[in-house]
Design brief:
heterodimer; A: mainly alpha; two-stranded antiparallel ribbon; about 5% strand; B: about 525 residues
Chain lengths: ~130, ~525
């Protein structure tokens, strides 16, 4: 899989505008928009058809940070693993973003070191057949 | 076995059928290999199951190709079959969106497709390799009319942001120049004695002559402007009649530019066994296969049924399901169950099975992809550029646009596949609203046909597989570890239950995988039922 190319949003803020500049977007927001919302939706509300895509909004299962770390790195059910396609920094950023937005107010922060320590490795030989 | 009774030497077909009846399809396949009949997928003919115990009931979950074929073959064998389907139509991922269709994805976005009569988008499968013999067999048997699918078109375009200043180039020119330059380099390597260690003098000479022919080199073994190279890449002034009939040769592009274009990736893709000529598509859209299969199991499908649990208690199978329209909960009892529900959904259903199968069902994630159909007022790619079917490739997120293979050289509106995303682009596109996907596809695809693409655009449709309500994804994503740990358990008959579908095959993400899996599953289930 190709690595995601993300743009450093902070680098462009000009000093003259600093007083009126909007707050820098959360670094996890772009990862969420480019990856997670494909299933979990822009409002993190999930969806339900023959099966269910869980809502991440107001989600009590996110309280223990180890749980989203395991799911994002290793996948769960229909959800593929994202270790290897996202960097550990991106995984930490997006978990922090979701745990502090969409009605979630968990104050502890996830770090790339925690992803390294608790995350699952990407499986070997995973191939997409066309 | 009726061959002895016939009182004559058995035909080869009868021998093969006899081996198949006694020992199963694996042995039959080996026998066919020996007799020189093997093809790329393992299809040895329909299973011809016979002799079901009267009154034995089978419930089939899912009216996709695997489910409907299971129902067809088991009904022929004498079983009483009932199919439960979540959607209000047959086919599953075998699906075409036509004008007048309405599609609501997860999250609630609804599209009313406005395509003209006869135009369609195939959100899922869209092409059939010539060696998918099982699918082809049933298409013929069920009266599904096929036509050629143009996979490779030398007149189509290749766009790379890293080459030719971002200008799309003809596949034909790039391919000819790639072969020509590589042939010239090889020839030079031979002259410089770079291959002395691996080739005899005689073979080196033969190779040089071969390279000249293969790469369209001139008499000096150079790939250069001239008649030979232009017969491949095209002339600056094409051959004509009369006064100005003489063609003017074209100048090949520099090798560095050809390298930058990445043309070899597209050439290599067309060499894959999945994309070699001949390829097929059904006349009128891929969904015609689903409809053709459904005609064979007429009256056996209950639509709008969402399965919530599968029990194997009490020497029978009990499936609980909810009518998605009325909310009415009911149960269907049977002696056996063929379950073709994608693992992405099945892993969320309460399935009464062995712990091993339960783990296997939960072990396989699903891929994602997005397809966008764009309808244009006229076939400007045909009328203005002589592109008849085939694919133009790009390194943008849409990855390709594919011109319709059906209705070639006709007038009126036509639908182009405007995006078929892979990898990260699939997630990015799936996260957009359908309107945003269509706009992005139009914007990115316009690089191929500036001045036409946006100007002739009428309307579009977009399907993001991660938001498809009946699959929550595209296809099963196996890897080496999960194959080793779970595959055999996943396909084994579990008491009264057997799984089938592309996820239960090694032809993943292809209709052929669903068909072969289904045939194998019903053959083993039938055996199990006769032994019970």
């Amino acid at each position: 899989m190709m690595r995601f190319v993300l743009f450093a949003a902070a680098a462009v803020a000009a000093p003259a505008l600093a007083a009126k500049a909007p707050p820098a977007p959360h670094p996890g927001a772009e990862v969420y928009q480019n990856v997670c919302q494909a299933c979990h939706m822009a409002n993190a509300g999930g969806g339900e058809g023959a099966g269910k895509i869980p809502a991440l909004a107001k989600n009590g299962a996110l309280e223990a940070a180890g749980y989203p770390i395991m799911v994002v790195t290793g996948g769960k059910g229909a959800m593929p693993w994202f270790r290897g396609s996202l960097t550990d920094q991106q995984i930490a950023d997006v978990i922090n973003y979701v745990r502090s937005h969409f009605g979630n107010r968990y104050r502890d922060k996830v770090t790339p070191a925690m992803i390294e320590e608790m995350g699952l490795p990407a499986p070997k030989g995973g191939n997409r057949e066309r | 076995m009726n061959m002895a009774a016939a009182g004559r030497a058995p035909t080869r077909r009868e021998v093969l059928r006899a081996i198949g009846l006694m020992a199963g399809t694996a042995v039959l396949y080996q026998a066919m290999e020996v007799l020189g009949h093997a093809r790329e997928t393992q299809f040895a003919g329909p299973p011809n199951l016979q002799g079901a115990r009267p009154g034995t009931r089978v419930v089939v979950l899912g009216a996709g190709l695997a489910g409907m074929l299971a129902a067809y073959e088991l009904s022929k064998a004498g079983y009483n079959v009932q199919i439960l389907e979540y959607n209000n139509r047959p086919g599953g991922r075998n699906w075409s969106l036509y004008g007048g269709d309405t599609y609501t994805e997860l999250g609630g976005a609804t599209q009313k497709v406005g395509f003209a009569d006869g135009n369609y988008l195939n959100p899922g499968p869209w092409r059939i390799p010539y060696h998918h013999r099982a699918l082809l067999h049933y298409c013929k048997a069920f009266g599904v009319k096929l036509e050629p699918f143009m996979q490779m078109n030398q007149q189509a375009l290749l766009h790379s942001s890293k080459a030719f200043g971002g200008k799309p180039m003809r596949y034909r020119e790039l391919h000819a120049d790639w072969d020509g330059h590589v042939a010239e380099l090889m020839s030079k390597a031979i002259d410089n004695r770079g291959l002395d260690g691996v080739l005899t003098k005689e073979d080196a000479d033969r190779l040089k002559m071969a390279l000249r022919e293969w790469g369209a080199l001139d008499k000096d073994f150079k790939y250069a402007k001239g008649w030979g190279s232009s017969r491949r890449r095209g002339f600056d002034r094409p051959q004509g009649g009369g006064v100005l009939g003489e063609p003017i040769p074209s100048e090949p592009y520099a090798f560095k530019d050809i390298m930058d274009s990445g043309i070899w990736r597209v050439v290599a893709q067309h060499m894959s066994i999945d994309h070699q000529h001949t390829m097929f598509q059904p006349v009128g859209g891929m969904g015609m296969i689903g409809r053709g299969f459904a005609r064979q199991v007429d009256g056996k499908i209950r639509y709008n049924q969402k399965v919530t649990s599968i029990s194997q208690q009490g020497g029978k199978v009990t499936v609980t399901h909810t009518d998605t329209g009325t909310g009415l909960v009911s149960t269907t009892e049977a002696d056996y169950c063929v379950c073709t529900i994608p693992l992405s959904v099945l892993s969320q259903i309460d399935v009464d099975c062995s712990p091993g199968l339960d783990a296997a069902i939960r072990a396989v994630p699903y891929s994602n992809s997005v397809k966008v159909g764009l309808e244009f007022r006229r076939r400007f790619w045909e009328e203005d550029e002589a592109i008849y079917g085939g694919i133009s490739f790009t390194d943008r997120e849409i990855s390709m646009i594919s011109y319709p293979s059906g209705g070639l050289h006709s007038s009126g509106p036509a639908v182009v596949l405007g995006a078929y995303t892979f990898g990260p682009a699939s997630y990015k596109f799936a996260g957009m609203t359908p309107e945003e996907r269509i706009q992005r596809a139009l914007e990115q695809g316009s690089v191929f046909h500036p001045g036409r693409y946006k100007e002739e655009f009428i309307g579009g449709a977009a399907v993001a597989w991660s938001r498809v309500p009946f699959t929550l994804g595209c296809c099963a994503m196996w890897n080496e570890d999960t194959r080793k740990e779970h595959y055999q358990t996943l396909v084994a008959v579990d008491d009264r239950l057997v799984l089938a579908g592309e996820h239960a095959s090694y032809v993943g993400c292809w209709m052929e995988g669903a068909i072969l899996s289904s045939l194998d599953a019903v053959t083993r289930l039938h055996k199990r039922a006769l032994e019970a």
